[in-house]
Design a protein that fits this description.
CATH architecture: 3-Layer(aba) Sandwich
Number of helices: 4
Radius of gyration: 13 Å
Helix content: 40-55%
Strand order of the largest sheet: 1-2-3
Oligomer: single chain
Order of helices and strands: HEHEHEH
Largest sheet: 3 strands, parallel
CATH class: Alpha Beta
Number of domains: 1
CATH superfamily: Cobalamin-binding domain
Distance between the termini: 19 Å
Structural class: alpha/beta
CATH topology: Rossmann fold
Length: about 100
């Protein structure tokens, strides 16, 4: 796991993800900027040729915002009160299905 500290720009997150060869990028958004941050991070990842990582996260994201992000290819998002174990199991299941089943 790599923690980038608070308030990182999407291009910084994408650069670090590429440099560290990550499988999952998870963002936490409490500011209401989810409609900007998630798509921009995904855009920068794509510009770096990284299209096969799980982009997920959580925070205070209204249902309609989560649906919009889902249509853009952002994976499941976790709202306030979600047990950490639920998010962890989701990522583990994705990893088993996408990395263990078909290693790169």
């Amino acid at each position: 796991m790599i923690y980038t500290e608070l308030h990182q720009r999407p291009e910084t997150i994408a650069r670090i993800a590429v440099e560290e060869d990550v499988d999952v990028v998870a963002l936490s958004v409490l500011s209401g900027a989810h409609r900007t941050l998630f798509p921009r991070a995904q855009e920068f990842l794509g510009a770096e040729g990284v299209c096969d990582v799980l982009v997920t996260g959580g925070g205070i994201i209204p249902e309609e915002g989560a649906a919009e992000l889902g249509r853009l290819g952002i994976s499941r998002l976790f709202g306030p009160g979600t047990p950490t174990s639920e998010a962890v199991e989701y990522v583990r299941a994705w990893y088993r299905e996408n990395r263990e089943a078909s290693p790169t």
